Amino acid sequence: MDIGSTEMMIVMQESATGEDVDRILERLDSAGARGHVSTGDLATVIGVVGERDVIAGLPLEAYPGVDKVVPILKPYKLVSREFRRSDTVITVGGTSLGGGHVALIAGPCSVETREQLLEAAVSAQQAGATMLRGGAYKPRTSPYAFQGLGVEGLEILAEAREATGLPIVTELMDPRHLEAVAKYCDIIQIGARNMQNFQLLSAVGEVSRPVLLKRGLAATIDELLMAAEYILKEGNANVILCERGIRTFEMATRNTLDISAVPILKQRSHLPVVVDPSHAAGKVDLVEPLSLAAIAAGADGLMIEMHPTPEIALSDGAQSLDPGQFARVSKRIQDIIDWAGKTLG
Questions:
Q1: CATH (domain of 35)
Q2: Are β-strands 34-39 and 44-51 bridged in parallel, bridged antiparallel, or unpaired?
Q3: Is there a single domain that holds both residue 65 and residue 173?
Q4: How confident is the prediction along the chain (345 residues), in pLDDT tens digits per residue?
Q5: Which of 103, 136, 153, 294 could pair covalently with 275 via S-S, beta carbons 3.0-4.6 A apart?
């Protein structure tokens, strides 16, 4: 936040009315401040962001329905547990994520052909997946590698959703593609390379689609939460945090899965947490144990790469499960979801 700004919570009384909340929001707006409402099981909380000198002069505690006004101490405000005690639950297409609901997101790294994607989608759905992933726009290390099909890929993803009923998760790389991606997808993914692309984060904060935000290659947990704050600050409260492994000195895996990030994020934020074991491991045989560990650690979902024929995949074949492998891993994941006392979808 800018120097000279302040962040606080207005905790409303249990008996406070909608008119009481609206009256405070109108007063904050007239003072040039911003209020974000969070309705919990016991009380409604209004998060306030604005100029310190201006807010300090507002008699907020004197307004009808106000219980107390307290500062938020974390550098991230709207994503913090201080602002919202209960878990955020995100529901798309009849499936939920967070608050005891676990999502199993599966599909290929890239949409390559209509036949490939539809086969992957049907296999994922039959094996228990609750959402379909697939990249229409692909960020690649080499400029000569397959970059995705663009709008054609989005259209194929929409067709797969129609065929299977699975909500779509796909990556957005450029604000110029936002309108097209939001038109076709159910959840917008922001990849690790764009975690601190603040213009992109602000742009997705202004749309009504949930956002899956991946942790950057060398980002700290606080940096991930601050990136999420950019999205919530613009009004989009439906954000999913994704741990996908970070870059360390270890060479045995593609990245190092920070399994400790899962319980830490759950302690510090009300946002749901998903783990991507495929990008963390980079190896098919590590996907299952990392998936089970993630659910045991408290993850609200998994994002797993699955391809009908990994050996000829145009991207990430080495870490993609084939349909048979995914079906076996999915059953083990369901077992540990049951053990954790949660539900799939």
A1: 3.30.70.1140
A2: antiparallel
A3: no
A4: 443 455 788 999 989 999 999 999 999 999 888 888 888 766 788 988 877 777 778 889 999 999 988 887 788 889 999 888 899 999 999 999 999 999 999 999 999 999 999 999 999 999 999 999 999 987 666 776 777 789 999 999 999 999 999 999 999 999 999 999 999 999 999 999 999 999 999 999 999 999 999 999 999 999 999 999 999 999 999 999 999 999 999 999 999 999 999 999 999 999 999 999 999 999 999 999 999 999 999 999 999 999 999 999 998 889 999 999 999 999 999 999 999 999 998
A5: 294
Instruction: Say if strands 66-71 and 34-39 run parallel, antiparallel, or are unpaired.
Output: unpaired
3-class secondary structure, 85: coil
Continuous segment of H or E residues that includes residue 125: helix 114-126
Is 198 a member of any domain?
yes
Domain count for the chain:
2
Domain membership of residue 81 (yes or no) is: no
Which tokens sit at 242? 């994704």
Give the range of the structural domain holding residue 227, as residue numbers without chain letter: 90-344
- Scan for tokens 């290659």, then name that residue: 217
The radius of gyration of the chain from alpha carbons, rounded to an integer in Å, stands at 21
